[in-house]
Amino acid sequence: MLPHAGVYVTIRANRNKKACSSMRLALFLLALLATTTAHALTRAEVESIVQSYIATHGNEILQSIITAQEAQKAATAKEIIRPHNPTSGPATAPITIVEFSEFECPFCQRVQANLKPVRDRYGTRIRWVYKHFPLEFHAKAKPAALAAQAAHNQGKFWEFAAKIWPRQNYLSEQLLVEIAKELKLDMAKFNADRASPAAQKALAQDIADGKKAGVQGTPFFLINGTPLSGAQPTEAFVEIIEAELAKHNKAEK
User: Fold this and answer.
1) pTM for this predicted structure
2) Which of 220, 209, 214, 224 is nearest to 74 (CA)?
């Protein structure tokens, strides 16, 4: 217990070597207050103390902030992966890419060609998660999302999506049924599932998750929590993935 002006403050120091620098700063200031003269410190004196500490430990503070931000990004990305979301790749993969997309958006269709080299290059090092984010001004996007979700219930989401993209210009009820038949889906189940409250709930959850993640348009990606918006070239994905893999490999050592 440290006495100062009749106030007792209990300090519980974190002995972990990776303790947050802000905690170390607080402990430093408390220790100083406990050993200083009885007079109250002036604003100028406090500012001087803080500036001195930052000058000495600035890199530690910056690293702590970066570490906290990275942890928050990863936590946010993990939180929005739901049981109903189609995924491919192992859950233990060092890279998780969450894709917010919709089937009527021309940019979502365009980016698919840029994503294939990413999948081919990194294989099982990536866990891919798809989340629906139909834009309000695309009337055909929501029915397509519900149909794809129904196909997912029969283990055919990725195949269903792969057949939609090249025929996006012909997106319609007729096309959705045609693709379902091509994949030999149970049509009674397909039709029931896409009209079900569960499908509507899943879609609403994806949209809410997208808004929480900062999605304003499609396509939108979270690569281990790092956002990437738009129909970006393959190189943009590779740059972020390589940086994330470097961090992963460093942490493994």
Assistant:
1) 0.74
2) 224
